[in-house]
From TrEMBL:
Pfam families: ABC_tran. Keywords: ATP-binding, Cell inner membrane, Cell membrane, Membrane, Nucleotide-binding, Translocase, Transport. This is ABC-type dipeptide/oligopeptide/nickel transport system, ATPase component. Belongs to the ABC transporter superfamily. InterPro entries: AAA+_ATPase, ABC_Ni/Peptide_Import, ABC_transporter-like_ATP-bd, ABC_transporter-like_CS, P-loop_NTPase. One of its GO terms (molecular function) is ATP binding. One of its GO terms (cellular component) is plasma membrane. It comes from the Bacteria. Residues 6-248 form the ABC transporter domain.
């Protein structure tokens, strides 16, 4: 059985009976990277959050999500808390909201790692990941309050936290959208260098170049549905669904326009 098996997942807004995610299925093996692409509002974030039990109670998840043979749909909040950080780590689009503004960054990192590491080890691990994230002056970042760091720095702190947790699944929802291109490239190189058979990554991105360079498999979402799920080479070379073709064509047209400008 695959490491992650998502079968017929639907997410319904109980208040309006709107079905926001419809019958999405995909599988992921340990060591693989899944890219999720699709236009804004197509259900990418809701699907990711369903894997972490992070959607509000009025959004009801049906279907099956099995991580390492454990069924996640229907878990209690207490059970979700044990899963988050231990089995699955998440990187959100917005680094600023991920941290408590009243607590220094270092203390929040150490708190998140305390189950596995002593305070001293947690600090050492944190500083190591800060350096890998290209955060100059890791000690200063460690001692800073969130508001003293830029959005891009906080984003890198959040990625450092997800990686330091050493979970077997990392879900990254637009992890680099707040970063400048230089740091985007560095983080993507880092994600690529971390590819091994010990962890899997799900990455949501509007940047098809990022997905093409990292992903082994791709899920294309449109209006809440998974319209195509394929290996990355198949999806990028011979997309089957008309919407996948449209997404790739749009991207190509943008690159051509850029290349015409810099020629
Ligand atoms: N908390 C919520 N309550 C009700 N509806 C929601 C909620 N969050 C998202 N939705 C709706 O569900 C649909 C899918 O939203 P989702 O955030 O998953 O899209 P997305 O593909 O991640 O978009 P983006 O690329 O802009 O982040 C949208 O129609 C959105 O308005």
């Amino acid at each position: 059985m695959s490491f992650l098996v998502v079968e017929h997942v639907s997410i319904t807004d109980r208040r309006s009976q709107n079905i926001l995610v419809k019958d999405v299925s995909f599988v992921l093996e340990l060591g693989e990277v899944l890219g999720i692409i699709g236009e804004s509002g197509s259900g990418k974030s809701l699907t990711c959050k369903a894997l972490l039990g992070l959607n509000p109670n009025y959004l009801v998840t049906a279907g099956s999500i099995q991580l390492d043979k454990e069924e996640l749909v229907g878990k209690s909040e207490g059970a979700w808390q044990a899963i988050r950080g231990r089995s699955i780590a998440m990187v959100f689009q917005d680094g600023m909201n991920a941290f408590n503004p009243m607590v220094r960054i270092g203390a929040q990192m150490v708190e998140s790692l305390h189950e596995r590491l002593s305070a001293l080890e947690a600090k050492k691990t944190t500083l190591m990941w800060f350096e890998k994230m290209g955060l100059c002056e890791p000690e200063r970042v460690f001692n800073a309050y969130p508001h003293a760091l830029s959005g891009g720095m906080l984003q890198r702190v959040m990625i450092a936290l997800a990686l330091a947790q050493e979970t077997r699944l990392i879900i990254a929802d637009e992890p680099t959208s707040a970063l400048d291109v230089i740091h985007q490239r560095a983080i993507m190189d880092l994600f690529a260098s971390l590819k091994d058979n010990k962890r899997s990554l799900m990455i949501v991105s509007h940047d098809l170049a990022i997905v093409a360079s990292l992903a082994d498999k791709v899920l294309v979402m449109k209006e809440g549905e998974g319209v195509e799920f394929a290996s990355a080479p198949t999806l990028f070379r011979a997309p089957k669904h008309a919407y996948s073709r449209y997404l790739l064509q749009t991207r190509k047209a943008l690159i051509q326009r850029y290349e015409a400008c810099v020629r």
